[in-house]
Design brief:
Layout: E1 6-13, E2 15-18, E3 25-28, E4 34-36, E5 41-53, E6 58-67, E7 74-83, E8 90-101, E9 105-113, E10 116-127
Parallel strand pairs: 4-10
Antiparallel strand pairs: 1-5, 2-3, 5-8, 6-7, 6-9, 9-10
C-alpha cells in the first residue's frame, strides 16, 4: 500500500448520475475549461468528480482550492468523508454552484486530503 492516497480520476462535468440498482456513475457533459464573453463571470453549476484509493481506514478531510498565480487561492470545497479500508475506491461527487471568475487566466487547482497535496493542476478560463 502507498503511504499517500492515490487520485484515480478528476473530471469536471455538468452532472453525475448514479444508477440506484448498480451504483455505476455516469458523467454527463465532461469539459476541461471555461470560456466567457465578459468578465467577471459566474459559472452556474459544475461537478468535480474525484476517485481515490489507498486511503487508511477512517475519516478524512477533502479540501479543494482555486486561484490565479500570485494570488491567495480560495477554498471552494471542504468536506469530510470516510474510508472503510485501503483497497476501497472512494468516489466523491462535488457539486459547485456559482463559481466566480473575476478575470480570464490559467487557474491553479490544488486537491488535498488530510492537508496532503494529492493533485496540483490547472483550469483554463478564457475570453471569447
Amino acid at each position: 500500500m502507498s503511504t499517500k492516497p492515490q487520485i484515480l480520476a478528476w473530471v469536471t462535468c455538468d452532472a453525475v448520475y448514479v444508477d440506484p440498482a448498480t451504483g455505476k456513475h455516469t458523467l454527463l457533459g465532461i469539459f476541461t475549461n471555461l470560456r466567457a464573453k465578459e468578465f467577471p463571470v459566474s459559472h452556474p453549476r459544475m461537478v468535480w468528480f474525484l476517485s481515490f484509493s489507498d486511503l487508511t481506514m477512517g475519516k478524512h478531510q477533502l479540501k479543494i482550492t482555486i486561484g490565479l498565480p500570485m494570488e491567495e487561492p480560495r477554498t471552494i470545497i471542504e468536506k469530510e468523508f470516510e474510508a472503510e479500508n485501503p483497497a476501497q475506491r472512494i468516489n466523491l461527487i462535488n457539486d459547485i454552484q456559482g463559481l466566480d471568475f473575476e478575470t480570464p487566466g490559467n487557474y491553479g487547482i490544488i486537491i488535498e486530503i488530510d492537508n496532503q497535496v494529492i493533485l496540483a493542476s490547472t483550469f483554463p478560463v478564457t475570453e471569447v
